[in-house]
Amino acid sequence: MENPNMMQINSPVQVATAGEALIDFIANADGRFEPCLGGAVYNLTRAIARQGVATMYLNPLSRDRFGRRLAQALLDDGVHLAGPQAVVNVTSLAVVNVNEQGHPDYAFYREGVADRATSADALTQACGPLHNLSLVCTGALALSPDDAAVYLPWLAAQRQAGRTVVIDANLRPSVMPDLAVYRSHVMTSLQYADVIKASDEDLLCLELPGDDALAQAKSLLQGTRARVMALTLGGAGAVLLTGAVGRCLSMWSGNC
Predict the structure, then answer these.
(1) Per-residue confidence at 237, pLDDT binned at 50, 70, 90?
(2) Which of 145, 172, 191, 248 could join 256 via S-S bond, C-beta 3.0 to 4.6 A?
């Protein structure tokens, strides 16, 4: 697929994102599954671009039918694609069931898929010519230990270049075979973050000290270089914390 938004060296891009782009097969009440464009990083990329911020998506996309749909939706939202053409690898898939409490459960099919057909060098080289690039975002499935050699060197390079690093913890423990290794790798990845986004469920998975989500969030801030954290609490709202001591800057939950 030719990329009409392929960037030139004088690119206006301010934000670059790296991580999964996939198709969510969401179970309906009648037992059928509806294919939806998805992936936490993919959705974030589109949301940023829709706010009028020049944004580049760094990972490859497949030349299969699903990959073409993913690419077209990005282009329609004004996202720039780092790759000049689609790849032969298939699109990543997720089967999603939602329980009575509204929480999703995932099964992922991610071996040999397009969005993982990249490297630390490829991501770093794509960012190199972007002289206006000031912020990079990743997280979710990119925090799998299997992809450490791709994302950790890239994150290190972005910090060294002076760019702000945003990491969305958005953990998927149900699909990680070794939770101890997964937790350790997530914590290593978060050391590169200037800004962290996490939910109360993410903090429970990380087994952080503290009697509640707010205390656990403060513990996470104190244990990383990050100075800002957005904590989501489901139906209870959200909290924004800042500073090494995890001071509550603003909130909507009534629990600060």
Answers:
(1) very high
(2) 248
- Region of 3 on the Ramachandran plot (φ > 0 left; ψ -120 to 50 alpha; else beta): beta
Distance between CA atoms of residues 218 and 222, nearest Å: 6
pLDDT at 173: 87
Domain residue spans in the chain?
Answer: 15-193
Q: What percent of the chain has pLDDT over 70?
A: 88
**Is 190 a residue whose pLDDT tops 50?**
yes
CATH 3.40.1190.20 applies to domain 15-193: yes
- Residue pair 79/45 in contact by the 8 Å Cβ criterion: yes
Q: How does pLDDT run across 125-145, given as a tens digit for each residue?
A: 999 999 999 999 999 999 999
Tell the residue number behind the tokens 């057909």, with chain if given.
117
Query: Could you tell me whether strands 92-98 and 104-109 are parallel, antiparallel, or unpaired per DSSP bridges?
Result: antiparallel
pLDDT tens digits, residue range 145-154? 999 999 999 9
Q: Residue 127 and residue 177: Cα distance in Å, rounded? A: 32
d(C-alpha 106, C-alpha 122), whole Å: 29
Confidence check: pLDDT of 10 > 80: no
Contacts of 34 (CB under 8 A, 6+ apart): 25, 26, 28
d(CA 114, CA 67): 8
For 47-50, the CB contacts below 8 A with 24+ separation are 48/15, 48/17, 48/137, 49/74, 49/77, 49/78, 49/79, 50/77, 50/78
Structure tokens given for 148: 């450490």
